[in-house]
Amino acid sequence: MEKLRLGVNIDHVATVRNARGSAWPDPLRAAILAEASGADGITAHLREDPRHIRFADMDALRAGIGIPLNFECAATDEMAAIALRLKPHAVCLVPERREERTTEGGLDVAGDENRLTQYVAPLRAAGCRVSMFIGHAEAQIRASARIGAAVVELHTGHYSDLHAEGRDDAAETELEALRQGAALAHSLGLEVHAGHGLTYDNVAPIAAIPEVRELNIGHFLIGEAIFMGLGPAIEEMRRRMDQARLRRG
Ligand code: PXP
């Protein structure tokens, strides 16, 4: 099986910084440390209300890291203009609601297919790998392939919630749906990523899905960094991902 990449989402370093309106902790410093600790990419979500990552952070990240930058954003004109200026390695399109605490569901690609086809085209032409953050529904996966996305990132939030609640049967059912979604997406030529809510305790079954090439993990790692430091927190996640992959053979 191919090695699984780890994208580290540094949004919540900015959350802590913004809580005091200071200049620290610096998300770029976290990204550089993540890179040195084995991250394969950095993800940052520039929300329309820049509640964590800010415009200037995106510029600093683009200029300051040597690994791929995954620019996560809503499919708005403002974000397209920023993406076309920055030309990050990847652009991950997500749904956004102002009142949500985090990205709650997947993007409705099937319901917005014409607009998203036009939205994605200039990003592709600029050389960005465009990724759709979606649930595992077949219609969303097929629509993502049709609109010309290179990647789908499967939303693991529901699986993570069920796992945390100890609802093992329901978590297994959700996991199976994610497995089938990953297989379908791969068969359509899409690269498969996954993320949201992943922790040391729940990452192994997701890491073991053979079609999954990349995990994007943020909140748990930044929280764990309080106790063990960001470098060791990332290294431990990397170890668990690799172990799950090895066990699967
Ligand atoms: N992938 C996407 C598309 C996301 O929106 C998020 C959350 O910002 C993540 C991955 C990371 O999720 P978490 O912070 O729960 O690890």
List keywords for this structure.
single chain, 249 residues, alpha/beta, TIM Barrel, 8-stranded parallel beta barrel, 11 helices, globular, binds pyridoxine-5'-phosphate
Report on the structure:
This protein has an eight-stranded parallel β-barrel, surrounded by seven helices. Helix 9 (203-207) links the parallel strand 7 and strand 8 (212-217). It has a single domain (5-248), classed as TIM Barrel. Helices cover 50% and strands 16% of the residues. The termini are close together. The protein is globular, with a radius of gyration of 17 Å. It has eleven helices and eight strands. It has helices at residues 11-20, 27-36, 55-64, 77-86, 113-125, 138-146, 157-164, 168-187, 203-207, 219-228, 230-248; strands spanning 5-9, 41-45, 69-73, 90-93, 129-134, 151-155, 191-195, 212-217. It is of the alpha/beta class. The protein binds pyridoxine-5'-phosphate.
- What characteristic shape results from the CA principal axes? globular
Structural class: alpha/beta
Strand content: 15-25%
Q: Could you please say which CATH topology applies here?
A: TIM Barrel
CATH C-level label? Alpha Beta
Q: Count all strands and give the number.
A: 8
Q: CATH homologous superfamily, by name?
A: Aldolase class I
Largest sheet: 8 strands, parallel, barrel
Q: Mean pLDDT, rounded to whole units?
A: 96
Rg, Cα atoms, Å: 17 Å
CATH architecture descriptor text: Alpha-Beta Barrel
Order of helix and strand elements from N to C terminus: EHHEHEHEHEHEHHEHEHH
Which regions are unreliable across 5 or more consecutive residues at pLDDT < 50? none
Helical segment tally?
11
The helicity comes to 40-55%
* Count of discrete domains: 1
